[in-house]
Amino acid sequence: MAIEGTAENAAGRRPEGSAPAGGSGADAQGKSPVDLRHYLDPRVVAKLGRLELKARHIVEGFISGLHRSPYRGFSVEFAEHREYVPGDDTRHVDWKVYGRTDRFYIKQYEEETNLKAYLLLDGSESMQYAGPEGGPTKYEYGTWVAAALAHMLLRQQDAVGLAVFDESVRAFVPPSSSPHHLTDIIRELEHHGTARKTDLGAILRGFADRIKRKGLVIIISDMFDSLEKIDRGLKALRHKRHEVILFHVLDRDELTFPFQRMTLFEGLESLPQVLADPRALREAYLEEIGRFQESLKKTCRRSRIDYVLLDTSRRLDVALSAYLSAREGRSRRA
User: Fold this and answer.
1) What is the 3-state secondary structure (H, E, C) of 145-194?
2) How far apart, in Å, are the Cα atoms of 270 and each of 229, 230, 292, 310?
3) How far is CA 94 from its chain centroid?
4) Angstrom distance (rounded) from CA 200 to CA 223
5) What are the tens digits of pLDDT across the range 319-331?
6) Quick one: 90 exposed, middle or buried, by C-beta within 10 A (0-12, 13-18, 19+)?
7) Residue of 221, 220, 297, 245 lying closest to 56 (CA atoms)
8) Higher model confidence: residue 7 or residue 308?
9) pLDDT of res. 9
10) What's the mean per-residue pLDDT of the chain?
11) What secondary structure letter does DSSP report for 58?
12) Phi, psi torsion values for 145, nearest 5 degrees
């Protein structure tokens, strides 16, 4: 894709390693503590506190809560087991399974499973770009989006999981609705920076096969892959009847191409460096990225997928609340 080669200029900020870690020492379980405030801005939490993220399509799970369900009849029908995590109610431990396996498993019921949401966060090299003004990298902004949505979904008592990916899935936190699950998600966000190329289309097709129950898939990415591959991946998810939201994260530089002087553009994800006069490229670049965005929006509309452009220079509380408010309005009119 043509815009990949212009994803970074010589003045851009390229932090090494992962996102900032939160604190030092260890908690009672030997794990490093996390800095929740770095990922959850109080303004974001306050703004989203008045909103809900409801499933628009029928999901498998909760019957009397926020989401419509295809199930009828017994609302406490046994659904599945999952491994015990600290904070779970011990009344739901399956002691028979413990006796056979010597491991703790929780019995989940249809009434308790609610919506299962999966946050898919792009951790590829191109996500490390940030402009020269000292703003967040695309990856850092993406971690804030993931943390805010995870907090919101857990507040609704929905189950949420996380995957960080590039060419492959580098980290996976299975869905849980435990109140303590947010700490596990944020711990993974801080431990994974940006490194390799992406293969977004293959990742989406893989998750379409991996997720067995209908749920909500939230993609957070700069979408640096071919449209053909992206389209196949999105169609695979929708074919399995998952609801999909796509957050397209771009830096302001990538949207406006403000460079004026001769610039060394450093290619990301195996692309070469290019020394060029940006004034000669600006018109062609803006036309190309505009075409790509429009094609991506059309792809999403055809598959009934929400497309949300996130500019990393925009305050996250404003960007997310604007989208969620509009989504709620559309749901009420439907």
Assistant:
1) HHHHHHHHHHHCCCEEEEEEECCCEEEEEEEECCCCHHHHHHHHHHHCCC
2) 18, 19, 20, 25
3) 32
4) 7
5) 999 999 999 888 7
6) exposed
7) 245
8) 308
9) 38
10) 80
11) -
12) -60, -45
Measured in degrees and rounded to the nearest 5, phi and psi for residue 325 equal -65, -45
For residue 25, is pLDDT > 50?
no
Question: Between vectors from CA 17 to CA 13 and to CA 19, what angle results, nearest 5°?
Answer: 80
pLDDT band at 264 (very low <50, low <70, confident <90, very high): low
The structural domains of the chain, with segments of one domain joined by +, span: 2-58+114-333, 78-110
- Cβ count within 10 A of residue 163: 21
Cβ contacts of 168 within 8 Å, gap of 6 or more = 199, 203
Strands of the sheet with 243-250, listed across from one edge: 169-176, 159-165, 116-122, 216-221, 243-250, 306-311
Give the tens place of pLDDT for each residue, 204-261: 999 999 998 889 999 999 999 999 999 999 999 999 999 999 999 999 999 998 887 7
- The pLDDT of residue 134: 77
Give pLDDT, residue 260: 77
Nearest to 158 by CA among 218, 107, 109, 115: 115
DSSP summary character for residue 5: G
C-alpha 106/C-alpha 104 separation (Å) is 7
* Region 110-131 average pLDDT: 83
- Nearest CA among 116, 214, 221 for reference residue 164: 221
What distances in angstroms separate CA 290 from CA 42, 44, 143, 172, 314, one per listed residue?
34, 29, 25, 33, 19
Q: Is the pTM of this model over 0.85?
A: no
Nearest partner of 223 among 196, 192, 249, judged by Cα: 249
pLDDT of residue 207: 95
Question: Radius of gyration of the chain from Cα atoms?
Answer: 21
Which CATH topology does 2-58+114-333 take? Rossmann fold (3.40.50)
CA nearest to 162, candidates 138, 182, 135, 139: 182
